[in-house]
Amino acid sequence: MNSDQQDNGAEMNLVYDRDTMARLGIDVQAANSLLNNAFGQRQISTIYQPMNQYKVVMEVDPRYTQDISALEKMFVINNEGKAIPLSYFAKWQPANAPLSVNHQGLSAASTISFNLPTGKSLSDASAAIDRAMTQLGVPSTVRGSFAGTAQVFQETMNSQVILIIAAIATVYIVLGILYESYVHPLTILSTLPSAGVGALLALELFNAPFSLIALIGIMLLIGIVKKNAIMMVDFALEAQRHGNLTPQEAIFQACLLRFRPIMMTTLAALVWCAAAGIVGR
After folding, report:
1. Could you give the CA distance from residue 92 to residue 61 in angstroms, rounded to a whole number?
2. Residues 6+ apart with CB under 8 A from 151
3. Taking a C-beta distance cutoff of 8 angstroms, is the pair 9, 98 a contact?
4. What pLDDT is attached to residue 281?
5. DSSP per-residue codes, the chain
6. Cβ distance 225 to 192 under 8 Å?
7. What's the rounded Cα separation, in Å, for the pair 147 and 111?
8. What gap in Å lies between CA 142 and CA 104, rounded to an integer?
9. pLDDT tens digits for 110-163?
């Protein structure tokens, strides 16, 4: 894992002791104004000339801004008019600061990239990140989103159900027009749930992750099963119309005569499947 956030910059954290400030009669605004006048670039006036105008900016000598010991020489006036050293009620210590702050839109953002370990899929990594976000109790103001391949995978998973429903509806309409029937398309589509369940059981049996390659394989399997069902139903309807056979006899004859072409087309899709899987990984 690596991140684009670089915390190699140097900064100084200054913390007020509010109890001590209240006891000494020092206002927080007075201390803030002191630091702003010393280390900021505060415009205190403007000089107007006939041909131009000049801004008057108050700041300390640059040599004092390079040494942290300058803080020990600063005094704040309390409500009694006494000068109180800054070191009496404030503590400072060095810390790391980001060299730059990246943004996405109007929000500060940090990009974390990672590589998948051996034997793990993108779905496993996405699930682990979601669990970590939940366990850490990240506040609602902090949001995370995937990018790159992980974003494409997540969008594919989110739209998967809608795409499957749309595909089934399209297939039903096309088959209904082809066979001029409301029932025969349902007969063909009834083979799809068993194919999907069988594919998921095979993934569980071999402890294989549900990756993008697995999703493509399931889609291919559903297509093959649907094609086989169309071959069976189409032949059975032809035998029933022209051979005067009952539906039971027609589908039995279709099973006998269409078994070999179904096996040939199914096995053809499995040839070199291992090599294709290796290339996909």
Report:
1. 21
2. 145
3. yes
4. 47
5. -EES----EEEEEEEE-HHHHHHHT--HHHHHHHHHHHHS-EEEEEEE-SS-EEEEEE---HHHHT-GGGGGG-EEE-TTS-EEEGGGTEEEEEEEE-S---EETTEE---EE--PPTT--HHHHHHHHHHHHHHHT--TT------THHHHHHHHHHHHHHHHHHHHHHHHHHHHHHHT-SSHHHHHHTTHHHHHHHHHHHHHHTT----HHHHHHHHHHHHHHHHHHHHHHHHHHHHHHHS---HHHHHHHHHHHHHHHHHHHHHHHHTTHHHHHHHH-
6. yes
7. 9
8. 13
9. 888 878 777 777 777 777 888 888 888 878 787 777 777 777 776 776 777 788
Instruction: With beta carbons less than 8 A apart as the criterion, state whether 126 and 144 touch.
Output: no
Q: Provide the 3-class DSSP secondary structure of residue 226.
A: helix
- One-letter amino acid of 193: P
Domains (range + CATH), the chain: 11-107 (3.30.2090.10), 149-280 (1.20.1640.10)
Token pair recorded at residue 97: 């600061």
As given in the structure block, the two tokens for residue 9 are 């910059």
Residue 27 in tokens: 């206002």
Tokens of 17: 């002791």
How many residues in the chain?
281
Q: Which amino acid is at 273?
A: C
Give the helix/strand (H/E) hosting 15: strand 9-16
What is the pLDDT confidence band of residue 19, given thresholds at 50, 70 and 90? very high
If one compares 166 and 163, the residue with the highest pLDDT of the two is 166
Residue 235's nearest CA partner among 225, 223, 221, 249 is: 249
Q: State how far the Cα of 64 lies from the Cα of 205, in Å rounded to an integer.
A: 71
Closest CA to 212 of 134, 135, 277, 145: 277
DSSP state of 248: H
Could you tell me which of 281, 130, 135, 136 has the C-alpha nearest to residue 217?
281
